[in-house]
Design brief:
- By secondary structure, this protein is of the alpha/beta class.
- The protein has eleven helices and 13 strands.
- 37% of the residues lie in helices and 14% in strands.
- A hairpin with a 2-residue loop joins strand 6 and strand 7.
- Belongs to the DegT/DnrJ/EryC1 family.
């Protein structure tokens, strides 16, 4: 079976982890600092904070900009077409979800629908770069400009970049477009730490608070940190990364660069060979962005038949995520989403990862082209 996902781990990772285990210090320490410096260099933005998962990063980001459960409440505009890890932090922060429709061409948020739904109750906007294909961030800026003129405030945007390590918009890596960006280093992502995440912040004050609140709100950068003599003016969380995970991430950085190139090569191959298949539609490609292609999503007629055909051919495929608005826990937020309705039963992802051989790619293409 050709897998849909696979863990990428450097041969050097076990030895690097062993060094940390034998050092006598396995918590947040010098390896985390080293990893953050390396990440800042990759992204081109020094205002960042590692965390123990992207979910923690999203939770903390929402807490920073809305005040959390003790804050004034309000709505967060978000997409239902994502992992539930995107949206459950909204509820955990005492906020209400307001679903925004999906653009059938990209699986990303429909920016026209987003513009219509911004209101004085909007406390933040959460968007996902589906499969690592960036949202049109220039158009988003125009939407925010219009909202600021209409309502006198500019909603904070949190980009869920869990699929998007290495993706760029208008030549700049995600994390450089004036929003909070949260990346995932979970087991099967382009860059893995075993588990972990990264927050990239648009200003120094948010960076300061993120680094403070990821560790209970305790100031760790003074000699008094282990004596607990510093005041804690704002409570925080235990969301920090540790040196074990950071050492894995450091070992995998160069490997992730090579893997990203391979994902893009495989995606280009599928773009070229699947564009004219009856009953199958590719997603959008735009010259102003370079996707990461963590997954490769297509829209097919008779998805059940397509999935059976691929399974019989030894190719693992999946819809990857269920639309979140179907879950009973968020039933109260239900609304009409015609764009998502038009594609949710057609979406399926095929293997695109670094592990594919040329024979694997040819087998996937020939199986699809033979019909289902």
């Amino acid at each position: 079976m050709i897998p849909l996902f696979k863990v990428s781990m450097s041969d050097a990772a076990p030895a690097e982890v062993e060094k940390v285990l034998l050092s006598g210090f396995v918590g947040q320490g010098p390896k985390v600092d080293e990893f953050e410096r390396a990440l800042a260099a990759r992204i081109g933005n020094p205002r960042l904070a590692t965390v123990n998962s992207a979910t923690s990063g999203l939770h903390l980001a929402l807490h920073l900009v809305t005040g959390g459960p003790g804050g004034p409440g309000g709505e967060v505009l978000t997409t239902p077409m994502t992992c539930s890890a995107t949206n459950w932090p909204i509820l955990a922060n005492g906020l209400k979800i307001k679903w925004v429709d999906v653009d059938p061409g990209t699986m990303n948020v429909d920016l026209d629908d987003l513009a219509r739904k911004i209101s004085p109750a909007t406390k933040a906007i959460v968007l996902v770069h589906w499969s690592g294909y960036p949202v049109d961030l220039a158009r988003l800026r125009a939407v925010l400009d219009q909202a600021e003129q209409a309502f006198g405030f500019r909603p904070v945007v949190i980009e869920d970049c869990a699929h998007s390590w290495g993706a760029t918009f208008q030549g700049e890596p995600l994390g450089n477009h004036g929003n909070i960006a949260v990346f995932s280093f979970q087991a099967i992502k382009h860059l893995t730490c075993g588990d972990g995440g990264l927050m990239v912040l648009p200003d120094e004050e948010l960076r300061r608070r993120a680094r403070l609140l990821r560790w209970y709100g305790i100031e760790r950068e003074t000699n008094a940190r282990f004596m607990f003599k510093n005041d804690i003016p704002e409570y925080g969380f235990k969301f920090h990364m540790n040196d074990i995970n950071a050492s894995i991430g450091l070992a995998n950085l160069d490997l992730a660069d090579a893997n990203l190139r391979r994902h893009r090569e495989n995606a280009a191959h599928f773009d070229a060979h699947l564009a004219d298949v009856p009953g199958l539609e590719l997603t959008e490609r735009s010259a102003d962005r370079e996707p990461s292609f963590w997954i490769y999503t297509v829209k097919v007629d008779d998805r059940d038949g397509f999935m059976r055909k691929m399974d019989e051919a030894g190719v693992m495929v999946s819809q990857v995520h269920e639309r979140n608005d179907v879950y009973s826990g968020v039933r109260e937020f239900a609304t009409l989403l015609p764009g998502l309705d038009s594609v949710s039963e057609r979406m399926v992802s095929i293997p695109v990862g670094w592990w594919l051989t040329e024979d694997d790619r040819d087998h996937i293409v020939s199986t699809i082209r033979s019909g289902w």
